[in-house]
Specification:
By secondary structure, the protein is an alpha+beta fold. It has 15 helices and 17 strands. It has helices at about 1-5, 30-35, 80, 140-145, 155-180, 205-210, 230-240, 275-300, 300-310, 315-325, 330-340, 355-365, 420-430, 435-445, 455-465, and strands at about 25, 40-55, 60-65, 70-75, 95-105, 115-125, 180-185, 190, 200-205, 225, 240-250, 265-270, 325-330, 370-380, 395-405, 410-415, 450-455. The structure holds 4-amino-1,4-dioxobutan-2-aminium adenosine-5'-monophosphate and magnesium ion (MG).
Amino acid sequence: MLAARRGWRVLRRCAALPPARAAATRLRVRQALAAREPAGGVAVQGWVRSVRSQKEVLFLHINDGSSLENLQVVADPSLGTSLCCSWFLRDLTFGSAVEVQGKLVKSPHRMQSMELKAETIRVMGPCDTWAFPLKMKERHPLEYVRQFPHLRCRNNTLSSLLRVRSEATAAIHSFFQENGYVHIHTPIITSNDCEGAGELFQIETSNEARESGEKNHFFDVPAFLTVSGQLHLEVMAGAFTHVFTFGPTFRAENSQSRRHLAEFYMVEAELSFTESLQDIMQVMEDLFKTATSTVLSKCPHDVDLFHKYIAPAQKGRLEQMLKKRFVTISYSEAVEILKQASQTFTFKPEWGCDLQTEHEKYLVKHCGEVPLFVINYPYDLKPFYMRDNEDGPQHTVAAIDLLVPGIGELCGGSLREERLPFIESRLQRLGLADAYQWYLDLRKFGSVPHGGFGMGFERYLQCILGVDNIKDVIPFPRFSHSCLL
Ligand code: 4AD
Ligand code: MG
């Protein structure tokens, strides 16, 4: 609009088709910025991030999601007299989609190496800047852009986040593949409640829902969205020894907290022939450190944006997390530390009670703001599959939670109960022995000591980037009372 107002003829709608041109080489913005030599016949497509008109030149910045940095396009006003751009040519504004063809040349500006000298500019999708909720050159707060899940990816912060998320996904897959794990697609629809916490979304067809019939289940049995792929991974660990899965997970937790979603991604690993919690903790620590180092080296600018503008203290914190060894304490020690704390907690710490977020944060601080393993939790607090430590009046299981600065619980894991009599009697007491016959079979046919863990992927991203609210690290957040799009 700005350009149109100032009379750039190149930007006007034009009735004639452009003359046939030799096919230009299509480049992503990232490739164009990284080019070493000038090149003619280049085409770049993207969305306009800024338009600036000077006396004799029009500057555009365009972005196609391939990098945080925009490509500067320089257009000569005489361009408009020589070119009829397209049937679709519309005003060139912030937010519009464009294709620019021209020459890639060395930029005279210090801040960038290459810029595109436009020969044609085609506006492929105009944008009504007045109605568009994102505004040129504004750093919108995360809470503001959260209202527009369909548009916020065109904002710098969210596009950086999504590139980091993509690199982190790849880094996690590489970590496991390089360490000999087999990737398993565990099912999303399941008939078990792995965690036994009853936070399940039940699946029924729309007809069933209408008739609220309990008899005619689509699968003949009640079915749910998975809360964890662990039990299916345990099946596979009985053949492959080292397996992992990384997929969507669902919890009907009625929580509006900054750490909970109804749909989140979980990375889970299961290791056979493992007798000590230490082995599992080592994998957790290695995964965290290796994946994070990879992300830092693959997309430093995107990570920097968070460390500079969103969470300035996070860079130093993360460096400490990567440099120092993670600390380990037992649950019983944790309760003693909490009892002796000068701080008063909303929930009074008692042996046998779950650790609350306030407790987790205190413990991490107390132990030097580094990731902290808390191990050996009370038997009665944890799910049926955890291995009994057979340890007297303060009866515990071989559980591990990994707590990290600023977030609290990042990973949960355990050794699994591989001994048939133990698991059988526990399932019987819970009235689950019939439903879990197949699980008991795993203990009858070649059972081995094994264990594993799950890491919340969104909490991992919050931890490395310093993002306070989990809703800002997933493309389309789902939580109680909200399922937009
Ligand atoms: O501790 P959790 O419940 O462990 C399990 O589900 C195990 N079966 C995993 C395993 O051993 N294979 O969940 C694992 C992690 C948590 O530590 C947390 O980071 C994340 O998943 N998580 C959530 N993240 C976002 N929103 C929620 N509602 C979450 N619930 C758990
Ligand atoms: Mg847990």
